[in-house]
Amino acid sequence: MKSATLIGIVLVILGILALAYQGFTYTKRDKIVDIGPIHATEDRQHTVPLPPIVGGLALVGGIVLIAVGSRN
């Protein structure tokens, strides 16, 4: 399989996922108190939004790469 076709398939999959989920969330653990044997932590969720244009561009770019890879 040609590298352009393979990259195109990956971009199409990532574009579909970006359009479906619109972003991702991750959890970060922060230390609040750390005094001797006493430890307190807090889990904070952070959301990273992905604009739909990013998913659309990845999808279109992947389709173009697949078309170019199949021509050669």
Give the number of DSSP strands. Answer: 2
Q: In the residues, how many domains can be counted?
A: 1
Strand content: 25-35%
Counted by DSSP, the helix tally is: 2
Major beta sheet, strand line-up: 1-2
- Low-pLDDT runs: none
Q: What sequence of helices (H) and strands (E) makes up the elements?
A: HEEH
Radius of gyration: 20 Å
Helix coverage percent: 40-55%
Broad shape: elongated
Mean pLDDT: 91
Give the distance, in angstroms, between the N- and C-terminal Cα atoms.
11 Å
Based on helices, strands and strand pairing, what is the structural class? alpha+beta
Topology (SSEs and partners):
Blueprint: H1 3-21, E1 23-35, E2 38-49, H2 52-71
Antiparallel strand pairs: 1-2
Helix pairs in contact: 1-2
Overview of the structural elements:
By secondary structure, this protein is α+β, with helices and mostly antiparallel strands. It has one domain. 54% of the residues lie in helices and 35% in strands. Strand 1 and strand 2 (38-49) form a beta hairpin. It is elongated, with a radius of gyration of 20 Å.
